[in-house]
Design brief:
This protein folds into two domains: about 100 residues; about 240 residues, no CATH class. It contains 13 helices and five strands. The protein has a five-stranded mixed β-sheet with strand order 3-2-1-4-5, sandwiched between helices. This is Nuclease HARBI1.
């Protein structure tokens, strides 16, 4: 029985179906063109920013396997020392790998070293390592904390017992400075802070900086570093505060030994300062002048150490980025840790060699002008008077030796 009347409005032939399908495809194509054409679409597509062919990991691998000067230029370390630094951080538990984390220790340390060595902005590092600025900031702060912990192992005295060859082999210094174990002074590093506390960190040049107190030995190694002082603080007050707080762990030398300091500090046991003024007889004034010249030559080891530190890490010169004060403190301590690491593990470092050569010229210029328990802190007047007499005796003996 014919049942066509029960089906109304349908198109059952194949040719009609093909025509409809073609119309639908043409409509989809036209809509797609309109969507992606800026003349028809007001919605702009998001442009890919991090589109480098090399990921951050691949970039670090390229530096490790590439020309040796390239990694030194970027990170201030050659390949063996870079890998050793990464191994130290991991083996001593100062850098932990997380299973869900894509950035490994080598990439994390590399981007931090580039930040410190070139004062690179996080935006630039994000483009180079193909990460977001938030990821870069997180890893920089993480490695800084690890380097500060490593600094507890590296920034410490090594030998207070023996006279250093720098003193022992120099007729200008021996025997008068045989008990000098190093030098102590402060320096300014660039800082950033909130507007309400900005005046406390403003130095005499009108810039923002913080004061760093440091002591070093004759090998240009830091043995103590203290940060978090506004630049308006006085040198002597900072040292006194450091010595009187047992929690700060200042490494006092053994009894009779001392650090060379400048005239802004008090001449007292453990710290030998130059003479102030020119009083006394002609011979006494001449003896004091001779002592001060040679004392300055001994003490300039700390100035040269600061010079190497700032030359290697321009981030300390500033202007400092808007890090929190705690992060800025970690930056200074991390740079000092890396400084000692390079001094210990990079014997022919160009920065240290250059400063050593300049130091030899400085000593020649002066010449042309002719583990024991540390001693207790003694700021009593009697102790200071005795120390002044010892300094006077050294100066007198030095003068007699120079004129005989």
């Amino acid at each position: 029985m014919d049942n066509q009347g029960h089906i109304q409005g349908g198109h059952l032939d194949d040719e009609t179906d093909d025509i409809d399908l073609d119309n639908i495809l043409i409509a989809v194509v036209l809509l797609g063109l309109m969507f992606f054409d800026p003349r028809f679409s007001r919605v702009q597509r998001r442009r890919r920013v991090r589109d480098s062919a090399l990921s951050g990991r691949d970039y670090v691998v390229e530096l490790i396997n590439g020309y040796e000067d390239r990694i030194i230029e970027n990170m201030r370390l050659d390949v063996p020392q870079f890998l050793l630094l990464c191994d130290l951080l991991v083996q001593r538990g100062y850098w932990h790998a997380y299973p869900s984390q894509r950035v490994g220790v080598h990439e994390s340390v590399a981007l931090t070293l580039m930040c410190l060595s070139h004062d690179e902005r996080h935006r630039i590092l994000a483009k180079r390592f193909q990460h977001s600025t938030e990821t870069i900031d997180r890893h920089v702060r993480r490695v800084l904390r690890g380097l500060v912990r490593l600094g507890r192992d590296l920034v410490r005295p090594r030998n207070f017992d023996n006279t250093h060859p720098r003193i022992l082999n120099n007729a200008l210094f021996m025997p008068w400075f045989r008990d000098c174990v190093g030098a102590l002074d402060g320096t300014q590093v660039s800082a950033w802070c909130r507007a309400e506390i900005r005046e406390r960190y403003r130095n005499r040049y009108g810039d923002l900086s913080q004061y760093v107190l440091a002591a070093c030995d004759h090998d240009m190694r830091f043995v103590y570093v203290r940060v978090d002082w506004e630049d308006s603080a006085h040198n002597a007050r900072i040292l006194q505060n450091t010595l009187l707080d047992p929690n700060l762990g200042f490494p006092m030398p053994p009894l009779g030994k001392y650090y060379a300091v400048d005239a802004t500090y008090t001449n007292m046991p453990g710290f030998m300062a130059p003479f102030r003024g020119a009083q006394g007889t002609h011979h006494e004034r001449a003896a004091k002048a001779l002592f001060n010249r040679r004392h300055a030559s001994v003490r300039n080891i700390i100035e040269r150490t600061f010079g190497v530190l700032k030359k290697r890490f321009p981030i300390l010169k500033g202007p400092m980025q808007n890090y929190l004060i705690a992060t800025q403190n970690n930056i200074v301590l991390a740079c000092c840790t890396l400084h000692n690491f390079m001094r210990d593990y990079v014997p022919n470092d160009e920065y240290f060699n250059e400063e050593a050569l300049q130091g030899a010229f400085a000593d020649a210029h002066i010449a042309g002008h002719q583990v024991h328990q540390g001693q207790s802190i003694n700021m009593l007047q009697q102790g200071i008077d005795n120390w002044n007499e010892d300094r006077q005796a050294i100066a007198a003996h030095m003068y007699l030796n120079a004129h005989n």
